Each structure stands twice: as C-alpha cells, then as structure tokens.
Here is the input.
Amino acid sequence: MNRHLLSIHDLSAQDVVRIVDTAESFREVGSRVIKKVPALRGRTVVNLFYENSTRTRISFELAAKRLSADVINFTTSGSSVSKGESLKDTALTLQAMGADAIVIRHSSSGAPLTLTRWVNGSVLNAGDGTHEHPTQALLDLYTMRDRLGRLEGLRVAIVGDVLHSRVARSLSFALTKMGAETTLVGPPTLIPPDAPAWGVQVSHDLDSVLPKLDVCYVLRVQTERQRQQYFPSVREYARLFGLTRDRVELLPEGALVMHPGPMNRGVEIDSDVADLPRSVIEEQVTNGIAIRMSLLYLLLGGSGPPAGADA
Amino acid sequence: MSGARLMDDADIRRALIRIAHEILERNRGASGVALVGIAARGDDLARRLAVEIERIEGSAVPVGALDITFYRDDIGIRSEAPEVHETRIGFDITGRTVVLVDDVLFTGRTIRAALDALVDFGRPTAIQLAVLVDRGHRELPIRADFVGKNVPTRKDEDVRVCLTETDGQDAVLVQEPAGSRTGSGA
Here is the structure.
C-alpha cells in the first residue's frame, strides 16, 4: 500500500479488501470491555482540521487512541493559523515535532497532496474541498459489505448534491473499483458535467431509480459550498429529491438507506426515514472508527525498512 | 510443500491426545478450564484438543481464538503491517484456567504478546501454555506446560505446522532457509 491516503485512486481493489477485512478485526476490538490495543504505542497522530468537523475528527481521534497512539488535535481556531500561519509553516512545525501521521481536512482541494511534499510521515485525507473524502467511502463500502455480503454487482444510487460532494466522488470511484453499479441522481445543476467519465450512470428521476436499488445513499445539501442558487427552493428540492416516507416504500426489501452525516432532516431525508431499521446511518459511524483504525494500522504499522526480518 | 517431515498425521493425533490427558491431569478435570488458540493454526489445534477433552471427560470446554497481531513488538519495524486474523472469545476468562494453544514455540514473542492480549479480556486464575512443537531458541523467559514434540533446530530453519483445516494435510515440516520466508511460529 501507499504511504499516504489522498484519494481512492491510490488504492487497488485488493487494498480495499485488505482495509475492510482488517477493519472487521478492529470492530471486534471495539466490542471489548477494554477497547484499546497497543499496536501504535508511541506513535503520534496529528489531526489537522482547517474545516469544521465533528464526526470525522472524533472518529480519527478515537481510532488513534484505541491504537494507543498519542493524538494532537489542531484546529484552526485557537491555533497559530488564526494568526495567519501558512499551511507550509504549520506542516514544518508538525514535522519538527515528529508527527508520524497527519490527518488533514482542508477547504482547498489538493491541500493533502501539497502537504506530502513537506512532511515525512503519512498523510491521510479527511476531506479536501470538493475533491475527495476517501475514508468516508471506505467506511461506506465496509457498511455495505457487512450488511449485504458483497460489493460486486451492488446497485447503488448516490442522491443529491453530487457537484459539491467529495463523499460522492470518493464513493463513486470506490464503488466502480469494486464492481458495483452506481447511479448519480439529482437536479441537472447538481450533477457534475464530467460525471459520465467516472464510470457511473446519471438520472434526474429518483422515483424511477429507487425500485432497482440495493443501497440508496443520500447526500447532504451543502448550502455552505453552494456559491449560487442551484435549485429554486429547499421545499422544491425536498419534494423532488428528498427521501420521503412514501418514496422509501419504492425501495426493494432489504435495500439500505445511508447518509454520511450530518443530516438535514426534512430536506434530503425525512426524519422518520432516517430512523427506520433499514437506515444504517449510525452503523456507518461505528464502522468509521474501525476503518480509520485499519488505515492507521496499515499505513503506520508497515512503515519500517523494506524487506524486514520475520518474527 | 517440501522439507523434512518431523511429524505426520498420526504423530500429531497422538500428541494432541496426550496433551489433552495432561491438561486434564494437571487441572484435575475439565471444570474451569478454557482453551484459547492463537491464530492462525493454534485455534485449529485448540478446537481439536477440545474435542479430545470432551471425548475423555464427557464435558465440553469453551474454546476461543486469539489474534495477537495488535500486540506484536515489531509493528512499524516491518515493511508491511502484519496480517490480521479473527479474535473470538465468546466467554468470560475471569476466574478460569486458560490454556493458550499455539503450533510452534520459538522465540516466545508471540506468547508474550498473547499474554498481554489475554489480560485485556479479563483476569484468568491461571494461564498455561500448550504447543505442538517446541523448537527452542527462546528470546524471552517463557516455557510451555504441555509440549507435543521437542525439536532441536537451527535458528534459521523454518518449522511449519500444516493442518487439514488450513493446509489440506496434517504434518510438521522443517525447511532449509529460503530466500523468502513467509511465516513461522514465533
């Protein structure tokens, strides 16, 4: 595997299987009374978050702590970044402090890649601009495989604001890599023009797609990234593309409803749909810790010199 | 798979039957005893021992599988993160006598890791160690309570236990050092 995880394209299908398999062992660790193993004792993981985040940051923090690594949380407010420090100087500072891994979230696409030029440790992309969010895609694949038993041939719709969604990009790439069939659903204004090149299908009619799905993946409407008006009103969006109680009935039995969080209940998903047994949104969160443990373990656990000695 | 054959299927069967008797003798029966095999292959051996113990004693003992990967002392020294296996301990080990089961006892580092892993699950009354092969070359002060066969080896040789469950046959093989060694008991 690569030293960094910047994009789903850094991984082979074989890597994805290994990450998910390893995550299963870490989920077992999470079910113990003592949810901690000494695998990364003495390593330092820095959470470098230039954008607000609750679940991803806490998830990475918990993952690193359960591996016995030391964790430093570095958020822009209350740090020297608010005094105008550049990404490069922050990176060099963290490098000088001996960070073994840097988990970065940044509003600029490509910031994690730039960071790799300045630091020796592993860089994990926790979401960069509208580019990618690979750990989210991996935890989603894990949740699908865990619930449905396979990835190949799964029919998945990713519904909503695909244009601004790094989750949708990473997940589409990952699903295509694993042989699933992906359909992007949303208003034409929110489907990226290059979407057909991702190896996915595009539809603007949610009702016609729902009956053929194994997974309906609902995206958050990201008003904070929308620089212009992409749809007439939130009410109209909810009526056409919101996963309502009536609409969820169109899904085949056993099909899952997923959402990366945080949810806008009543906009892209009805409140009572989010709480149905087929909604696995909380499982996604639990599995997220296991996936991030798996990634930290695989990236840092094999960071010794090549061709090491056997036990 | 080539190499000199140290034990064949009949040898392994007889060794396990003897170890099962020794476990029962030492612990005066099966009550309070649990078997925990170290993945991979130790867990298969633990299941076989449990079958023998039940046949001899008429009562079943709980069996678990323990993966020690996250407790290894060489994580980050290797170029590739060690492969992870399943841990499955579906009973409370507190207050029991846990017999750890492994295929090959070599440096003792695996057992050191297993002891650390096990105490994260509870506080056993006692921990004992059963191995199919003891090949010497200890690097830590660890010894086995129950041994199938003591085998003097050179340190660079590769002792490999094959079991029907994972390898399609029962055998213990010793191989000359090769260019690429993919795994041996530690």
